[in-house]
Amino acid sequence: MLLRQQFLNYIAQTSEVPQGFCMGRAKGNYLFDREGKAYLDLSSGFGVSNLGHGVPEVLDAIASQSREYLHTNVYGEHVQKVQIRLAERLADLLPAGLDAFYYLTSGSEAVDAAIKLSRLATGRTEIAVCRNAYHGSTLGAESLRSDEEHKAPFLPLLPGVRFIQFGESDDLAQIGPQTAAVFTEVIQAEAGVRFADPDWWKALRARCDQTGSLLVLDEIQTGMGRTGKLFAFMHGEAVPDILLAGKALGAGMPLSALITSQTLFRQLFRTLPLAHLSTFGGHPVSCAAGLAGLNVLLRDGLMENARKMGKRLAEGLLNPMIRDRRHAGLFMAAELGDAAITLRWIAALYKENMLAESFLFDPGSLRIAPPLSIRESEVDQVVALLNRL
Questions:
Q1: What is 332-345 written as a DSSP string?
Q2: What residues does 217 pair with on adjacent strands?
Q3: Which CATH number characterizes residue 145's domain?
């Protein structure tokens, strides 16, 4: 009780009723409280812990890099082998043209950097973005949020932001010669795992090409294997001009990246030196963790496991209270239709030693996004519990 009270006294809480789980340690697919009780992790730290917890290769890489050196200078000034190796590994896995990397610390930073690059490269100022998207909480990223009530206390935000409807073809006409870039998630995460039709993606890519607008795909939450592919856009054919990665990229350490082409990237720093700076971006320990984590993701077949376990989860959920199941790999929204019911389900899961969450813009749906290493027996435990609620 004392520790919980100290948490309330000294640590800023970001929600009205924080979960207040008292962390002890983490291992595999479980978080352990301070009494040693194991809880199955069904949210993966909102997509950070795709590999699970305490991955030996990641911990070894962190320790090894820590012994060599930590921070040396602001990002982009010193040649650091670990940053290069991670970039090379990712470039080999991505489509041609996504081979220039700007490392940062958080997803919001990557979004802000992409706004600046888009404006500088095109000479335009307008940004088109989909409604009900969450791109971060810095002032720039906050400007891309459509719910006016939340934004009102922070006005004025960035001007020139135009909102379009995700998946709505008629809205693509709003993208024009004044549009620097279109920002969108591939799968709308906080809206409750929402998808757009393949034809919309083809039309969006064509419209961007026609108007000279850049297509920026925010895969901060859906990247690094969550949907069964390295990035969700790889399920389709719409290749971005700028790809944003974060959360799971650092395998538990803070790391994000703006990924684009060498040609486009030169627009940022050769046109305007010092156009964007990041002190801790690409921290060597984070890059070491990210490289080790990427190797584990590929070696252990975790993307294939995400596809299999996601299918098992979706097919197993038969509770009639679940109105809809939307999922890609191990990213699922179980729609209950009411925020109060969702909270009751989260509480019921907690009593059975399972930690789950809902969605920012879809509180009536239960978020199920466990580590990609989850086993059949653990999926079946979740299914059995949810089917009897």
A1: EEEE-S-HHHHHHH
A2: 184, 243
A3: 3.40.640.10
Whether 50 and 61 map to the same domain: the answer is no
Whether 9 shows a pLDDT value over 70: the answer reads no
Q: Is the peptide bond prior to 284 cis by the omega test (within 30 degrees of 0)?
A: no
Q: From CA 378, how far away is CA 368, in angstroms rounded? A: 13
Q: Please check whether residues 115 and 13 belong to one and the same domain.
A: no
Tell me the residue range of the domain where 162 lies.
57-299
pLDDT in tens, 328-378: 999 999 999 999 999 999 999 999 999 999 999 999 999 999 999 999 999
Query: Is there a single domain that holds both residue 194 and residue 339?
Result: no
Give yes or no for residue 8 having a pLDDT over 70.
no
Average of per-residue pLDDT values in the chain: 94
Are the C-beta atoms of residues 164 and 131 closer than 8 Å to each other? yes
pLDDT tens digit sequence for 195-236: 999 999 999 999 999 999 999 999 999 999 999 999 999 999
Report the domain count for the chain.
Answer: 2
Query: Which CATH number belongs to the domain containing residue 378 in this structure?
Result: 3.90.1150.10
Helix, strand, coil shares, percent, the chain, to 5: 40, 20, 40
**CA-CA distance, 209 to 204, in Å (whole number)?**
9
356 and 208 share one domain: no
pLDDT value of position 76: 81
